[in-house]
Inverse folding.
């Protein structure tokens, strides 16, 4: 199930340029889930290609992971106005699409609070759960979920960046096919 390019499932459709679909390897057993498209993503239709995406790719590459090795998506498919956090209602509207995207994965990395909120219902501090492997149920399948910092949180915070590097090292050593 994928959203229609003219999706009107929530108010985000009113200001978007386009629906931003997943990118990367659609057959990968690994998915990275971010929050929402930003301005560059809204213009190009590809997730994680702005400043945060460049940092994510750099850290992935350091761990030996290429963008083409994983599926990259967001909790919502349209850019929220002024890059605000997506609301629960907006995330709920996109939830069926997200579940469809994740249903055949073995491991999902949640990049930031919104991904953790929508996929495990977590509302606390990221520091308390980063790199803790959690089992979640997606479409009747048990999947490993690894929460970590969103790359935007890593731009100016070296501790967060170190944890994101650790996430990618865990992902490569435990979950990526050799």
């Amino acid at each position: 199930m994928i959203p229609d390019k003219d999706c009107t499932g929530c108010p985000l459709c009113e200001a978007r340029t386009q629906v931003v679909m997943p990118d990367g390897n659609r057959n990968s057993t690994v998915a990275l889930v971010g929050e929402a498209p930003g301005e560059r993503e809204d213009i190009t239709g590809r997730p994680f290609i702005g400043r945060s995406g460049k940092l994510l790719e750099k850290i992935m590459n350091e761990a030996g992971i290429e963008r083409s090795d994983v599926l990259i998506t967001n909790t919502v498919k349209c850019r929220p106005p002024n890059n605000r956090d997506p609301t629960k209602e907006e995330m709920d509207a996109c939830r069926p699409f997200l579940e469809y995207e994740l249903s055949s994965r073995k491991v999902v990395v949640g990049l930031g609070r919104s991904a953790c909120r929508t996929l495990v219902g977590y509302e606390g501090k990221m520091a308390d759960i980063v790199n803790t492997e959690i089992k979640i149920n997606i479409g009747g399948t048990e999947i490993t979920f690894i929460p970590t910092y969103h790359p935007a949180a890593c731009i100016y915070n070296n501790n967060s960046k170190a944890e994101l590097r650790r996430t990618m090292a865990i992902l490569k050593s435990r979950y990526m096919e050799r």
